[in-house]
Design a protein that fits this description.
Pfam families: RecR_C, RecR_HhH, RecR_ZnF, Toprim_4. Residues 57-78 form the RecR protein domain. Keywords: DNA damage, DNA recombination, DNA repair, Metal-binding, Zinc, Zinc-finger. The protein has eight helices and seven strands. The chain has 204 residues and is an alpha/beta fold. A five-stranded mixed sheet has the order 4-3-5-6-7. Helix 1 (5-14) crosses helix 2 (22-35) and helix 2 packs across helix 3 (37-53). It is elongated, with a radius of gyration of 20 Å. The protein starts with a helix and ends in a 6-residue tail after the last strand. Bound molecules: zinc ion.
């Protein structure tokens, strides 16, 4: 039996999401169509609204619906320190620990030669421009995810920043290898950021 084109298109679109294969997409579309059409409408309305109203903060590249994000405009934050993370959900995870009061920079990914993602494909240019324009920034915390890609991205940034004289520190151990920051519990993540260690400079 041939499926109606609209159903096939919905399944095809959903299956493009990470972690959702053809089978799950199929199940979700039929779940919504069979008895949860209001939910289907709600999902499409809210996603459409988010996609049209949310942009990247020109300072830190986090998602925001205001000109600058609330963290960048918060006068209470320590403006001399920037924590570099891979995703917006990492900002949320670190904020929940309550131990960090500096600013952030969201890369939206990590460098991955295997997946063909180079330094220009993540928001590094914005970070370096930001550092050039804000000489008061004295410390960078590298909070990339633990794992090959996250670590090589952190190393790449550390190497580029070394001549600048900015203190570069990295999250302390405690984050399980291969896991994303957003999945670490608040205590572990809080300790990791509090016990961050400075990255040693070659030759020093
Ligand atoms: Zn911001």
């Amino acid at each position: 039996m041939r499926q109606p084109e609209t159903i096939r298109q919905a399944i095809k679109a959903l299956s493009k999401l990470p972690g959702i294969g053809q089978k799950t997409a199929n199940r979700l579309v039929f779940y919504i169509l069979s008895q949860h059409r209001e939910l289907g409408q709600e999902i499409s309305d809210t996603l459409l609204q988010a996609c049209t109203s949310i942009h990247l903060c020109p300072e830190c590249c986090n998602f925001t619906d205001t000109d600058l994000c609330p963290i960048c405009t918060d006068a209470e934050r320590n403006r001399n320190i920037i924590c570099i993370v891979e995703s917006a959900s990492d900002v949320e995870a670190i904020e929940k620990t309550g131990v960090y009061h500096g600013l952030y920079h969201v890369l939206h990914g990590s460098i991955s030669p295997l997946r063909n993602i180079g330094p220009n494909d993540i928001h590094l240019k914005e970070l370096f421009n930001r550092l050039l324009q804000n000489p008061a920034i004295s410390e960078i915390i590298l909070a990339n995810n633990v794992g090959t890609e996250g670590e090589s991205t952190a190393l790449y940034i550390a190497r580029l920043l070394q001549p600048s004289g900015i203190k570069i520190s990295q999250m302390a151990h405690g984050i399980p290898v291969g896991s994303n920051l957003e999945f670490a519990d608040e205590v572990t993540l809080g300790q990791a950021i509090s016990n961050r260690r400075e990255i040693e400079r070659p030759g020093s």
